[in-house]
Structures are given as structure tokens and as C-alpha cells.
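Figure 3 (text version): C-alpha cells given as input.
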């Protein structure tokens, strides 16, 4: 999931440099959403992994 967030971030940066504002904004929004989902799932896995071992 983090890989997809980075890919969309790169797409947003390239689109912004080339002047495609709408595409850049959409790709940046998707990248933010995917990064947020990744962080939430990572924290949940850390919590449940720690509870399982303890």
C-alpha cells in the first residue's frame, strides 16, 4: 500500500510540473488517502502484534 501511495505522489509531482493541475490534485489526494490507510493498518498491526506476544 505504501508503494502505491509513493507512486501516486510521483504521478502528482510530474503532473504538477507539466501543468496538469486537476490530475495532480487528484493523484495527491489518492496518495494522501493511501498513506493514511497504510499508517492506520501499520499501527493496528503493531498493537495487535504486541498484544499477541504479551
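Below: residues designed for each position.
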Amino acid at each position: 500500500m505504501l508503494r502505491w501511495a509513493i507512486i501516486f505522489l510521483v504521478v502528482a509531482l510530474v503532473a504538477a510540473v507539466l501543468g496538469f493541475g486537476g490530475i495532480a490534485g487528484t493523484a495527491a489526494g489518492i496518495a494522501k488517502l493511501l498513506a493514511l490507510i497504510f499508517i492506520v493498518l501499520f499501527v493496528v498491526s503493531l498493537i495487535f502484534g504486541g498484544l499477541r506476544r504479551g
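Residues 9 and 24 are 9 Å apart (CA to CA).
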